Amino acid sequence: MATTPNSFRTGPDERGHFGIFGGRYVAETLMPLILELEQAYDTAKADPQFQGELKYLLTQYGGRPSPLYYAERLTRHLGGAKIYLKREELNHTGSHKINNVLGQVLLAKRMGKTRVIAETGAGQHGVATATACALFDIPCVVFMGAVDVERQAPNVARMNMLGAEVRAVKAGAATLKDAMNEAMRDWVATCETTFYCIGTVAGPHPYPSMVRDFQCVIGEEVRKQMMEAEGRLPDTLVACIGGGSNAMGLFHPFLDDPGVRIVGVEAGGKGLDTGEHAASLLGGRPGVLHGNLTYLLQDKEGQITEAHSISAGLDYPGIGPEHSWLKEQGRAEYVSATDDEALEAFQRMCKLEGIIPALESAHAIAHVIKLAPTLPKDNLLVVNLSGRGDKDVPQVAQRLGMKI
Amino acid sequence: MSRITKRFAALKADKRAGLVTYVTAGDPDPALSYQILKGLPAAGADLIELGMPFTDPMADGPSIQLAGQRALKAGITVDATFDMVRRFRKETGDNDTPILLMGYYNLVYQRGVERFCKEAAQAGVDGFILVDLPPEEADQLKPYAAAVGIDTVLLTAPTTDDKRLPAVLKYASGFVYFVSVLGITGTKSASEEAVRTHVERIKRHTSLPVGVGFGIKTPDQAAAVARHADAAVVGSAIVDRVKAGLDEKGIAKPDLVPGVFAYVKALADGVRGVRKV
Predict the structure, then answer these.
(1) Is this model's pTM higher than 0.95 or not?
(2) Is the predicted ipTM greater than 0.90, yes or no?
């Protein structure tokens, strides 16, 4: 792009495009329903009653605001930037996912939908959706890759306890991408009564901007909390990226503050040069999947290739279209952390701060471990601790050869 | 006049509806797939849809998903798909049966839309049906397809109401494809009454022929659709015949190709048995 826009926060356009990215690439059957959703969301967004209800739920039920915690030991250990953790893992259900889900399920109720479906990778979005559906008394079906059902067993049990039906998807690599295919197939058959609660800033318009709006509470709180703590804005923001919702929620409120450096961390799997990774921005190119045009892992012809990551929540060959746009605009930097680096960061976080992070969030920490020592001590760095790692305990214990 | 338009004019003159058959390119392997393509007109297909396999066919049910997997495993590519069409035109001398490519937009996008359209036209392709390219995004394709004389067949669904239909029709040419059920391919079937109502409704908005597909599995169902629509589209049920022709190791049995043709003939008999006024 030749020119820098006046603002990075005005997208998407009325057709759901961020530059060339985004859009609405869905079957005609769904298109009228997507337009209906867009209209319903626009109305709800401007309705003080909807916003009031959502705020009440986020506060009284979700536990917001989440703390912005100065990680003193981690800071001292790394010897550079002053590190703050945005404690999204303290939210009800254990991750940032609840922010979005409460918004969408509230909207589903408002639209008179009688059933909610969702896809999930690590199970965090599935658990959050099952939770909100229990609260609102709406039947809920969660699609989850069979491999993820296996590696995230605690979350499957949680969803079942909350009354949701978990459908294990065996197609393809049986991970998040396949779960999303299956959710879309269900939706096309049931769209008149069913609300599809997408868990990240991807999918057809209006999902990327709607989910972003619901997640922006993260960055808005950080702005306020950092002003209170330090009297100024942060210098550096770091978050992990699968589809990119926790990152977008942190980044978006700061996009027009040129002094704030923004870094997204993709899942580098076994290493970018091995081809076994989930870094769509670093290792992919633009294409169309799951309703939007965005960076994808794909072969020469355009067949989608399998992602790989130790973290089920990042194990996806695409990314939200607004991240693709921010990358092309140069407003955000995108880097990666490998499985091993994430595992190392996971353990460091446990021992230094007494916090067991989700493997997803451990990717962000892994980059902070590299980045913080290169920054001056007065550099205020915020890393989004998007989820807690309880769900990963069996998997990590096994990787580390611990008996449980 | 495009091959598609000519074919529908000929069907009208014949006072009957057409049979549109879908097969997945490269299923179960490129050689057999070509044998099937070559013989479809003789078996009774009036128009042919050739599916381009995609790793993530979100609008397809299990039958077409599996067909795509078989074809990808056997090495099908976009070039090989164009070659099939080119060979068909050259070897059979059939210059009348329209061939439409059906699939997902990413394969078109990756090749470059303009280049894809040109190469498809050179190979002898007559139309595109891109499942995930609704009118909201269709302006990316339409000018390039139109420039090389390729029709863009857009889908309408039971959810496409009267208010929205003109937006769909704006980009449609050749014929209008009515997806008769809410859902993916090869699952539910629509009632004859529902087909009639929707076809009449669509025809109030356009003079284009209307083809009806999704969920047509038997010659009787094809005949029922033929009573109201200009064409009946059958896909999953034909692809299931390919699968039935494979042994448990996935090796083709000798009756695979004849089995597909026998089934297509039964469908064609069903469609042709309906006389139109």
Answers:
(1) yes
(2) yes
